[in-house]
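Exercise 7.
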Amino acid sequence: MNWEIKSFGELTTQELYAILHLRNEVFVVEQRCLYQDIDYADQQALHVMGRDANGQLLAYTRVFAPGIRFPESSIGRVVTSQLARGTGAGRELMKKSIATVQEHYGKGAIKIGAQQYLQRFYTSLGFEQTSDTYLEDGIPHIEMIRR
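Solution. The predicted structure, written as tokens, is:
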């Protein structure tokens, strides 16, 4: 996997299209969740992109400085293409995203809003559940923090 981190202003139109396509493919179509993905937060994020050798976007997150989404730094829109699942790409994506937070914003706490069924995955990366289950766009979520 080839990794790249860019601010919103550094994204090409092709990269932005690939990001929105992957998010739509997984969150809207695959998970059958109608929600407003384009939320004007992308402009404030760093975009972590993992591509295969052919340049196809297979893994993505957006990373925020403290005080934008939560008081802590945060990682969101964690998504891997069906083509990359079962390969360790999700774990690699999260490790790269955590490293990006630490490099750009320091080694403070990182908060995520995780789909509940992924709790064990995020726990294995050092995150702890900090909220009760809540529904976000009809999907059970929990808040988690990595200190």
